[in-house]
Amino acid sequence: MSKIVVNKPIVDINGDEMARVLWNKIKKELIFPFIDLNLLTFDLSIENRDRTNDEITIESAKSIKINKVGVKCATITPDDKRVKEFNLKKKYPSPNGTIRNILNGTIFREPIIVKKIPKIVGHWNQPVVIARHAFGDIYKSKEVFTRNGGKLKFLYEHKDGIKEEIDIYDFESDGVGLAYFNTFESIKDFAYSCFNFSVKRNFPLFLSTKNTILQKYDESFKEIFDTLYEKEFKKEFEKKNLVYQHRLIDDMVACLMKWSGGFVWACKNYDGDVMSDLVAQGFGSLGLMSSVLQSPDGKIVETEAAHGTITSHFRQHQNGKETSTNPVASIFAWSKALKHRAILDSNNQLEEFSINLEKFCLETLNKGYMTKDLALMCGPDQKWITTNEFFNIIVSRIKN
Ligand code: NAP
Ligand code: MG
User: Fold this and answer.
1) What gap in Å lies between CA 42 and CA 46, rounded to an integer?
2) Does the C-beta of 260 come closer than 6 Å to ligand 1?
3) What separation in Å is there between the alpha carbon of 260 and the centre of ligand 1?
4) Average pLDDT over residues 177-206
């Protein structure tokens, strides 16, 4: 079998712990033997981020910007315990946040649906893709305690010096207040990302807000999405028989439970934070959740598994024990990155390889060969295999 030749590089971001073990195995067993590929590898292990004062993270993001395709392994976001464990110079920020800010992208979280694996919400038989607007709102808010009463006001100073003052509340006792913001530019980029993703994925798009209450703030989201749809995406959506709709967040939550999936849900920042965990749980396993960071124009893509570095399994691995860790979301990160490279380069052979890689994973799971996390969801009679055994099956499927 001759190797598939890929002319342009993919940015490969390595990470930490058990996710790194899976990562190296995927490259060695599923990619390199079959694809002649130039990987631009950045080591984002916590040790190397510390060594480079986190410069490596910024470099990796810049490289994705240039090369358009990145694939990322899970990385440790250090907390106080990790700072001690690795004797770090400082508590570095989440690499995902750094990369997202540089690429100015939106994260789309999509579950991998496997027929054989029961879901907590049984009738969700197509993916619900959550798109989270990761800018502003409560995450950049300022809060204030009011003591012994007093007036809380809003002050907006125009550039030309004109001031607008709005009374918020006249307190008679202790209380608390909050202010937050967003920018039209960021909302517009978010809208572009969502429309482009829906077109590419062939899924309808729903935006949720509470614009009946927030008639300026949330209404701005609706207006920006509506305008962009009318101006730039309506024709393409209609051609593909796709719909775009704005819905109230409470109505959307009800629809989520009622419908069987198969749509992209554009969420405001906090809604996306909450809903992505709810949807992940509803579909079952973190080991089956994939994540794609996409630029507004849809041309730059970074893929990853949504789970973390799976520390508990890494401890077993360090003790020389074989683990049953689910590699499927990490394998799908690779297949999705290869697919994006294939589409950009019009490389049919590579596209076929990426489609088959996903197909082999799903077929293997549906035949009942799965890791422990998934077996536990299937019930007491379901047997499980080790990670190594799972890889062996996939390798032999690719070869035959
Ligand atoms: P986690 O690594 O996702 O693991 C949480 C638990 O979920 C595991 O202990 C395991 O349960 C189960 N699990 C997750 N993925 C699995 C898989 N592929 N196969 C089988 N079981 C799986 O989350 P965490 O323990 O909260 O975080 C660990 C580290 O990852 C942290 O340092 C955090 O900063 C980092 N993190 C990174 C990212 C990222 O880079 N995108 C995302 C999240 C967290 P059992 O132990 O019960 O088997
Ligand atoms: Mg959350």
Assistant:
1) 12
2) no
3) 27
4) 95
Which segments of the chain does DSSP mark as H helices, in order?
Answer: 17-25, 46-51, 55-67, 80-85, 95-103, 184-201, 217-228, 234-239, 249-258, 269-283, 311-318, 328-345, 348-366, 372-378, 387-399
Which tokens is 80 given? 């106080």
Best mutation site among 60, 302, 303, 309 for ligand 1, i.e. most ligand atoms within 8 A of its Cβ? 309
Q: How far is the CA of 311 from the centre of ligand 1 (A)?
A: 7
Determine the average pLDDT of the residues in 148-166: 94
Residue 60: CB atoms within 10 A of its CB come to 26
- Judge if the beta carbon of residue 312 lies within 6 A of ligand 1: yes
CA pair distance 17, 21, nearest whole angstrom: 7
76: Cβ below 6 Å to ligand 1? yes
CB 106 within 8 A of CB 293: yes
**DSSP 8-class letter at 261:** -
pLDDT at 264: 97
Measured in angstroms, how far is the CA atom of residue 266 from the centroid of ligand 2?
15
The radius of gyration of the chain from alpha carbons, rounded to an integer in Å, stands at: 23
- Give the closest residue to 37 by CA, choosing from 392, 341, 299, 359: 341
Is residue 359 within 8 Å of 383, Cβ to Cβ?
Answer: no
Q: How far is CA 201 from CA 182, 240, 353, 382, in A?
A: 28, 11, 18, 33
At residue 285, the pLDDT reads 80
Mean pLDDT of 319-330: 97
pLDDT at 51: 98
Token pair for 291 = 């994540």
Q: Is the CB of 374 under 6 A from ligand 1?
A: no
| Of 168, 203, 181, the residue nearest 292 (C-alpha) | 203
* CB contact burial 366-377 (16+ within 10 A = b; e otherwise): eeebbbbbbbeb
First to last CA, the chain: 10
d(CA 133, CA 190): 6
CA of 80 to the centre of ligand 1 (A): 18
Cα dihedral sign for 24, 35, 335, 389? negative
